[in-house]
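S.,

Sequence below, as promised.
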Amino acid sequence: MTNQTNALANVLTSIVTQASKLPDTGVATNYQARIGSGNPLSRVMLIDTSGSMDEICRGSGCKRRIDILKEAIASIGWQDYRLVCFNFRVTPIQDVKNICEPCGGTALHRAIEYATSLYPAQTLVISDGEPEDESEAIKAAKKLSGTISTLYIGDDDNKEAISFMAKLARLGCGKPYIQSLDEGYKAIGGTISQALLPPSRR
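The prediction came back faster than expected:
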């Protein structure tokens, strides 16, 4: 038994030694920097209100994307979050009832820049499209405290948008979620609630 234990210890030592020689990709450093950073009382929800959110959802009784999203957010504990709408401009709001009407583009980078000033411990980005400037959005996200999770609520065939949202969540040490608005506000609300759970300290 002692020989087996020694052999296992030697194997583990070898693995640790080899792992220590691997290049530092910055993932672990980024994770350590994000988890626990930011004001624990500051949590932000960035809500896409670009023009595409005016589209009608299939099987929704002729409801628009924005209307279903409003119902979904209203069904969960949104009061614990700072709500911020973004289209071509950034608009902080005090109540889910005041979510902006859809218009303009998707200036996500400006929304993230605004969120940075709030020093959040957690940020959730909800969007149905591609940002106006991916590189600027990523650049802004690198300066944002806390974790970043994403909820993609756009078309299933928009692979570029889905890929970007996943990339943003990886950078933010959060989780990417995908949910069809066609499934109704209860399903969306459930996914938002899941996305708002505190991150684990792996």
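The radius of gyration is 20 Å.

Coffee later?
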